[in-house]
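User: Quick one: structure for sequence A, then sequence B.

Assistant: Sequence A:
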Amino acid sequence: MPARPHRTVDRVIGILETVSLSPGGLTLAELAAALDAAKSSVQELTNGLLARGYLVEEDRRFHLGPGPFILAARANKLAALSIDHQFVAELSELLRSTILVGVRVGDAIVFTDHVGEESPGLTFVARTHARRPLYTSAAGKTLLANVPDDEMYRLLDLARPDQAGEVRQFLAELPDIRAQRLAFNRGVTLPDSFTVATPLLAPDGSLIATISAAVDASEADRLDAVGEELKKAVTTLGPKYGLDGS
């Protein structure tokens, strides 16, 4: 049976993700406002999350509880989290670019690590681990292009009507992305960054993440060359860090 969004599940995940992005915690009213939901319905869900240890409440403010961390430690299946930060740092120095590691989380991409120059938009997205649509960013397009077609089209079907143009653009780029093993974002999602991405593979050839190199607008003319350098660097350095370099 194909995966599809579920309203209650989406609301619970929304609560956890919103709280996780608020270091000082959130009151019930603030949380309901952030989710654009009725306080009564949010309170029912927060009561359940409190009871199971996924939230804790201090001074009437909600914070993440130990539950999510225990699940992550117990599963330890996100191979991208084991990618050595030194690998990311070496790529950044070699390519003279900001380097980001991104993973697919459901129908979105989340950046898990980055090294390089600060960018008001790009590094904010990386630091906050914010969800971004798969079919707009270079990293997201790389992930989409490297899943089976039935899964790719299922994910594209989740796009809103106002995102139809972005989906069409991705599909137009898809043959080149697969042929070149590179996807580009030329200042579309964030005007201050131009990004190219390529897949990161495990030794068995399975996709575990995407690696992106970003330059600012003043260096946009070297993005194609950066893409080729990125592929070459991953081929050379990847095996040193337990990745497939082919």
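Sequence B:
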Amino acid sequence: MSFFVTAADILLPAKGIDLEKFACIACDQFTSQREYWEELERFVGDSPSTLRLILPEVYLSEGNLGYIERINSAMESYLRRGIFEEHKGCMVYVERSTPYAGIRRGLVAAIDLEAYSFEDGAKTLIRTSEGTVLSRIPPRVEIRKKAPLELPHIMILIDDEERSVIEPLQGEGLELLYDTKLNMGGGSVRGYKVTTCDAVIERLKKLAAPDAIAKKYGSEENMAMAVGDGNHSLATAKAIWEQIKPGLSEEEKKSHPARFALAEIVNIYDEGVHFHPIHRVFFVEDGRHFAEGLKRHLKGFTSKGEIIFDGRREEIPLPGGAAEAVTAVQEYADACIKESGGEVDYIHGEDAVLEICKRRGAVGVLLPPINKNSFFEYIIKQGSFPRKTFSIGEACEKRYYIEARKIRR
């Protein structure tokens, strides 16, 4: 493996495609708000859209076979009809504006899956930042294993306080590839073609050099990147690659498209990167009983969170750190749901929690944010954060699907 980030042959919508209808938010958003996806469906209508190329997780419980067949069929159709045009051997510099942030800068490139693992305790160059929910991978595998395309909502973080890798691209006079407003209140996004990929890779190499890592963290660890968003999508790509790899020759393994995954690399110190907690909403038969039990379970902790049930909003004690708070709440909830039944959903945004908790029996828990300045150090020294601990930005700030890549030979 020469390096774990590389240029790619990137597919973008062809000229004349309505980009506002084409782009669609990450499939794992608004999972308890079906009305979001129904409104998006009405807006898109019959126009070409990445909405036709993904499976929104709000529909996962309804059976996936029909959705998967339609997704793969739509991908094949879009390729035949010239909906995409291919940009060879490049990266895409992205500037995203949202209602909550000025500009968030990113770099879309291909990630070598040989440098990544989603297994707990793995000491790879690219590491998962949160615990992986293994049950969420099989439905995604079913979509990807026969799909001709991938569309990434994966965001991978680098720890670049000197702003040496991505930020210099702002002044390079790059070719504008797209510039569009995003639907459903997602702000706007611009993409620029990067052809000076070797120079970008050299900057990344310096950032990931063992001596630079040792100086920064006081550790001999080889970690260079952490998955910020889309961990389960990247885990799915890894799972597919591990299935394909044994049937390939050593030469084929070097360049097979399934070995790589398209992702957006983002500097954790970018001014547009804001860490938010992922809150919990529990759907249980007796919300009051659940809430009172949780408060007893957390008694003695000195930090504060909030719980919402029966139209009330109350303070609850929590452990001091975000990871510890998530662990304490989830520990109680998992035991309670195992014993008495119920479901949990992971919600981005306080307003969404309040809206969902108006439903009978729903109990919301508002959790604290993590400190992004200690994000990489925590992963190196402690391992992954508990599953669904944090979110980068509000729900509407999540990555919209625009770029794509062929993943079958």
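The radius of gyration is 21 Å. The mean pLDDT is 92.

User: Thanks, that's what I needed.
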